[in-house]
Amino acid sequence: IPFYAAAPTLLPAAVKSELKTHALLSEQAALNVRSIRKSILSETVNRISSYLLLKERIVIEEQREILRQKEAVSDNALWETGAVSSFELSERTTKRYEQYLALLQLKENLSALCDGFYEIGLTEEDMPGSIDSWLAYLEDFIRKNPTENGLDIDAEEKKLTLYFYNKAEEGLLSLPKINLSVQAAPEAGTGRISETFGSSIRDYWKQAQKWDFSLHISMKLSLFPFEKEYLALKDFSLVRRKYTAELEMLNIYRKNRENRYKSKIELLQKLSDKAEREKIDADNRVIAAEALNKQGYLSETSFAYQRLNALLAENNRKEVRLRRISTVLEGY
Hints:
Strand content: 5-15%
Mean pLDDT: 87
Structural class: mainly alpha
Order of helices and strands: HHHHEHEHH
């Protein structure tokens, strides 16, 4: 058996290692699985939300492109009459072309999103039909299913503890070993000679007068002063200090991540409030534009632009809400 007196602090940790290692390994594996599941859920929701937002945005921009084409025809007519200079016409044409390129880029981004759906086992046909129903479902989901935070940190803590226990066992194995040997033999008295093999055995034990006991204790020690057995206590003390320091750093890291997460949620809430106000302002401008259009003070094209601006403000509001949902699902 190990000579525990040489390093008394090793024994409690080694006993815990023996009792808790299996449970810690199971807990670590479960935490890793839950962390992966959480990451997959967050990534899937983020991709679907990006797809729905981009698709709605493209519809709005395509309607803007129709209005821009009408403006191009009108600008050419004004240029022919001299109401618009060649420089002004060139500027407007360049601006419209840049906006058209931006629309093509949005469509390219949408195609890239669709191409990546196979990575999560989905196709474009699996997408929700309405972004509004998707938003309502997600907001209800995060309300009923709180996100588990700090799973990777908990798994790392289990990993550090397992390493600490493993080092305790290694230290225990390096201690000097005490070899114990006990012998006990009966000294049989003299008696009659047994007639059979079975009776000889019985007679031997019946005639035993006393027992001869012997105990042998030995321990092998190295004469080399830097052998592991002499450094076990010091080495384990360093391991314990390192383990304690790593746990403290991990706890600080957890608090920092939690604080950053809370700050991010708070920022997104403020952005959501801002987007809500901008949506209200855009709706009010539509109401004013409609009144001016009916009175003949605002063209149909300008009125259509105001309606599209309101739709774009609504799209931005949905984007902020979905960003907040993705952040909640991602957690920390």
